[in-house]
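Hi U.,

Before I forget, here's the chain from the pilot set. I'm dumping it here mostly so it's searchable later in email.
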Amino acid sequence: MPSSAYIKLVAKSKQQTITLEEVKELINYYKDITTKTGTQLGWEYGSNAFPYSLEQREDGKDKWFLLKGNDQDDYKYIIVGVGGTDENQEGSESNTYIQVVLPDGSTHGDKGKANEFCKFLAKKLDAELQLFNGRTMYYYKR
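Structure:
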């Protein structure tokens, strides 16, 4: 069965909304910093830290994209999307979130990398993270 993790932007987050393009920029930033770490260490750390390529499918345009593993048996795919709900009837607050999905066929390696990337996103955005196991981590000041 597919499982999901949610990075929820709350009132104390750095920003209240996020677009799919901004999430892609954060992924590229993550790739850049891991590649620079590898350069400092003299090791190809970037390709091991984030062994995925980003694919935008036509049916998920502006809603989700696929992270597809780079020819390794340990990593298959992860789906990343954005969404939002208007829970307040007065319209003053909307809850925006990033959803990270491990579809059927994902590996334990995918789950480990997805957890690592979710924690990175939540920390960068000062957000609330609901992990795949249902536990919640708070990266904003409470």
